[in-house]
Amino acid sequence: MFIIFLSWISLQAYLFAPVSTFLVAIGWQLFLHPRQVMRKRLVNEGVAMLLRYYLIFGWLLRSHSISTALAMYSFYVWVGAMYIFINFSVSHTHKPALDADKHIDWVLYSANHTTNVTPSWWCNWWMGYLNFQIEHHLFPCMPQFRHPLIVPRVKALFKKHGVVYDVRSYAQCLAATFGNLHNVGNDHHHHD
Length: 192
What we know:
By secondary structure, the chain is mainly alpha-helical. It has 2 domains: 2-89, no CATH class; 106-184, no CATH class. Helix content is 67%, strand content 2%. The protein is built from 9 helices and 2 strands. A two-stranded parallel sheet has the order 1-2. The longest helix is centred in the N-terminal third of the chain and has 29 residues, at 12-40. The radius of gyration is 20 Å and the shape is globular.
């Protein structure tokens, strides 16, 4: 089993998008979310969850077999999971982790452990304004579409205090993320 784990880790750069994201999404939908609903006795949320499955499968089963309906639902989850988890990871996973004995304030943590993706009309749309991840971490209750309005103020604050405002293109973030997945999963990676 340990050999399988090491093989998986060494291949994580290749397995992340097509396999890991799907497993996380399915685990979330079929285990973690229902468990939370039952633990907290969230009746309305449980009813909404059951209604969602009833409507999806009720509609699919009108013209498809159960196996085809499950395959179609799995494909829908697979595409959605890749979309959300890749877009989430490009702003986070290539940054260094904070040592357990090191403590910094939330502003420096937001600055040093997240990256913004260069804004443009398509990137703002594609990422739902979560390409402004630094601002999102500094102001988590602010609606995402408002983040571009505070970028100049955040940049000025960072400049005043000598803090790097990390912004990269979508392609650079993808390369950094998948490069990091490869590096941390293989023996030649040196831990700092």
